[in-house]
């Protein structure tokens, strides 16, 4: 009898793990990939879980699935249980390690790594030289995925979409700026309008980045067409091509200083400010080393 109960509990854990992965990815096949199982196996586990609980957990729309009300309630209960088991080794190691010999893994975008994090990393590594500090150069959803999968202790950057499993601690707010060569025709205008900007080719980050999406949204709201001359990653690269006269760009204020040969125009009239901060998993216990780094940043 004891063996049967143990087998049942083991199956239930596997069912809940498949359920959580499917809820996160909204796909049975993607959940199966993460669990190294076949898609039919995961589907059968979830159907068995629905049968045993007497509740429908997903609405199925072809390959895409969506949580029902009951599914959302179960996810609130199951996610911390599954995460606790999946990260048992990490939690045990955390309990044993000291801050002087730990590791800190941070997810952040390129501009955050270049402009915001250096003083914090410098101070932390000076105080704790034995700690292994690792920076993952990722943005947006990729950073949140690393955070949720436990591959990053925390993320640093802007947080545009609220999520119940994530908490955001703001650190600094930057303003949007138009940058151009000092001899550009717009540099001679006393008051630059959004329609003036639309007349000149733009140099922007790639489409998957926040800046591109915000620029596209603002021009669309004002029914203005605009031309993109280049899509390049990294503010330094963008500034290089602006300096070469290939176009103008919209960047955040932290990447421009007075020593550079650009004419700048504040754009907060049309474009939103952007707040960068610390992104943490709610109710997730950090290692001693990561706790120290978070304390330093905050």
- Gyration radius from CA atoms, angstroms: 24 Å
Number of strands: 12
Please trace the helix and strand order, writing H or E for each element. Answer: HHHEEHHEHHEHEEEHEHEHEEEH
Structural class: alpha/beta
Mean pLDDT: 88
- Which term fits the overall shape? globular
Characterize the main sheet: 5 strands, mixed
Report the uncertain regions.
Answer: 1-10
The separation of the N and C termini measures 53 Å
Strand order of the largest sheet: 4-3-5-12-6
Report on this structure:
This protein is α/β, with parallel strands linked by helices and 298 residues long. The chain has helices at residues 2-25, 28-35, 39-53, 69-86, 88-96, 110-116, 118-127, 140-148, 194-197, 210-221, 235-243, 288-297, and strands at 58-61, 64-67, 103-108, 132-137, 154-158, 166-174, 176-181, 202-204, 228-231, 249-252, 262-266, 274-281. It has a five-stranded mixed β-sheet with strand order 4-3-5-12-6. Strands 10-7-11 form a three-stranded antiparallel β-sheet, covered by helices on one side. A two-stranded antiparallel ribbon has the order 1-2. The longest helix is centred in the N-terminal third of the chain and has 24 residues, at 2-25.
Features:
three-stranded antiparallel beta sheet; alpha/beta; 298 residues; five-stranded mixed beta sheet
Précis, in short:
This protein has 298 residues and is α/β, with parallel strands linked by helices.
List the helices and strands and how they pair.
Layout: H1 2-25, H2 28-35, H3 39-53, E1 58-61, E2 64-67, H4 69-86, H5 88-96, E3 103-108, H6 110-116, H7 118-127, E4 132-137, H8 140-148, E5 154-158, E6 166-174, E7 176-181, H9 194-197, E8 202-204, H10 210-221, E9 228-231, H11 235-243, E10 249-252, E11 262-266, E12 274-281, H12 288-297
Parallel strand pairs: 3-4, 3-5, 8-9
Antiparallel strand pairs: 1-2, 5-12, 6-12, 7-10, 7-11
Helix pairs in contact: 1-2, 1-3, 1-4, 2-3
């Amino acid at each position: 009898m004891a063996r049967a109960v143990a087998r049942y509990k083991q199956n239930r854990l596997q069912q809940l793990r498949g359920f959580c992965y499917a809820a996160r990815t909204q796909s049975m096949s993607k959940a199966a990939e993460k669990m190294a199982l076949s898609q039919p196996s995961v589907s059968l586990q979830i159907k068995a879980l629905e049968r045993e609980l007497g509740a429908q957990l997903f609405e199925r729309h072809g390959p895409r699935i969506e949580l029902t009300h009951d599914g959302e309630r179960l996810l609130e209960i199951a996610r911390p249980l599954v995460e606790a088991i999946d990260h048992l080794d990490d939690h045990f190691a955390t309990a044993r390690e000291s801050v002087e010999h730990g590791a800190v893994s941070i997810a952040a975008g390129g501009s955050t790594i270049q402009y915001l994090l250096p003083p914090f990393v410098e101070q932390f590594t000076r105080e704790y030289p034995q700690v292994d500090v690792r920076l993952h150069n990722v943005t947006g959803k990729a950073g949140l995925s690393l955070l949720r999968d436990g591959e990053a202790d925390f993320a640093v950057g802007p947080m545009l979409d609220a999520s119940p499993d994530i908490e955001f601690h703001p650190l600094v707010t930057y303003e949007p700026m138009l940058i151009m060569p000092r001899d550009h025709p717009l540099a001679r205008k006393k008051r630059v309008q959004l329609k003036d900007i639309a007349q000149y080719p733009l140099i922007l980050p790639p489409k998957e980045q926040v800046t591109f999406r915000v620029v596209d949204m603002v021009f669309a709201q004002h029914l203005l067409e605009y031309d993109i001359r280049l899509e390049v990653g990294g503010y330094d690269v963008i500034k290089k091509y602006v300096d070469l006269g290939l176009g103008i760009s919209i960047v955040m204020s932290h990447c421009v200083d007075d020593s550079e040969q650009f004419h700048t125009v504040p754009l907060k009239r049309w474009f939103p400010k952007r707040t960068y901060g610390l992104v943490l998993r709610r109710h997730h216990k950090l290692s001693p080393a990561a706790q120290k780094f978070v304390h330093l940043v905050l």
